[in-house]
Amino acid sequence: MHFALPPRKTSQPPPYLPRASRPPGLRRTRFKLIALAGLALFALIFLVKLSTSGRNAAPTSRAPRGNPPVVLVTVLDEARYSKTYLETVNENRIKYAEKHGYKTLFARVGDYELNGSPGSWTTVVAARDALTKYPDCRYVWYLDASSFVMNPALKVEEHVMQPSRLDELMKKDLPVVPPDSIIKTFSHLKGQDVDLVLTQDKEALSAGSFIVRNGEWARFFLETWFAPIYRSYNFEKVEAHALEHIVQWHPTILSRMAVIDQRIINAYNKGVRGEEYKDGDFVVRFPDCAAAGVQACEIESQSFVQAWRRAFASS
């Protein structure tokens, strides 16, 4: 059986050539193949189930009632951000959530057992934890700590996730990984069938801001993303490249995913790598500040912090 590797060279695990003198390596390779086969079988069963039941069929589990409508999830990494900055992030999320009757979930690196995987995988586990803690929520919105909600008037369920709105926002027949991925977003996807919404910048898909609709598919997606086989790969950007891999090679995931304009949920403070924030946009994100030092995000975000506080005070 042959399994395709990710099309991005930087995302590929190093090639492995089994040799008779290294039986432990051979066993590891066989384990990976078995794990991949299991994932493929799981995806096939899920697709068959969807095709035979449809959205109007009787659900296998109780549909979430939308209480709360949204859980806003953020991972706080004290090794990458200053204490003052993280307090500001906490304030921003709580004020926005309280305004619309949402809930927040703040996770810290180290809160979950990652079995030796890098701490950035906390992103996926925290989103999964939100579904467990709030089983009646409608949506989970993950927004990383290098970001602020800037427009408190906008609601996730109206500004992004309403089916008619998604019909307008979705970028169809678009290379999933810019600029030239041969895998493209579905051209026939409808807003009512979307369960995952994210953006891409000039270089890659972005895992810094994404929304999942609560349900069986969301759990399948997050479990697949966090699968040991992908955490064992030597991806350059860890969970971000793992995400690119699964959306390109698993039609079960691509068939429920919408890529939308960056400025809807993920505008950058500078336009070098992506679309630049404009007054009135929902979110501003500082994609490079965390890598520049513990104090960098606090310094870089000062003018935006003042702006969102004014916006919240007048709303």
TrEMBL record:
It comes from the Eukaryota. One of its GO terms (molecular function) is alpha-1,6-mannosyltransferase activity. InterPro entries: Glyco_trans_34 (IPR008630), Nucleotide-diphossugar_trans (IPR029044). Keywords: Glycosyltransferase, Transferase. The keyword Transferase applies. The keyword Glycosyltransferase applies. Residues 1-23 are annotated as: Disordered. It holds the Pfam family Glyco_transf_34. One of its GO terms (cellular component) is mannan polymerase complex. Belongs to the glycosyltransferase 34 family. This is Glycosyltransferase family 34 protein.
